[in-house]
Design a protein that fits this description.
Elements lengths: L15 E6 L6 H12 L3 E5 L20 E3 L1 H7 L13 H12 E6 L1
Parallel strand pairs: 1-2, 1-4, 2-3
């Protein structure tokens, strides 16, 4: 959420690229995902499954916290903390589906 209570990737920012990353760091697919994000103009990164391990160490992408979204259950299951690097919504999958269905120009899954 932004300071004004709106999501940074809400109606004011339609037509974004949504990336779903489920691969751990140093995986070829994870590297490709992060390279594509670096070239994308308006990206949002969703981390699920082993993708939450990308929060360990350096931030996974040069994106603001509001544009990196991590699954709470996967963070807890793997003992990973978001540490202010990512937004952790109550209902990750509802937010992901809503984003994909209403605002995404492109969707990439890794």
């Amino acid at each position: 959420m932004c300071g004004n209570g709106e999501l940074a990737f809400g109606p004011a920012n339609p037509r974004k690229s949504v990336f779903l990353l489920t691969k751990p760091p140093h995986n070829d697919r994870a590297s490709l995902c992060l390279q594509l994000i670096a070239q994308s103009k308006d990206a949002v990164l969703y981390l699920a499954g082993d993708g939450v391990y990308n929060l360990l160490g350096e931030p996974p992408a040069a994106l603001p916290r509001e544009r990196i979204v991590a699954c709470r259950e996967d963070l807890q299951a793997r003992g990973v903390l978001a540490d202010g690097i990512a937004t952790v919504p109550v209902d990750f999958y509802e937010l992901l589906i809503d984003d994909v269905m209403s605002e995404a120009a492109r969707v990439y899954a890794f």
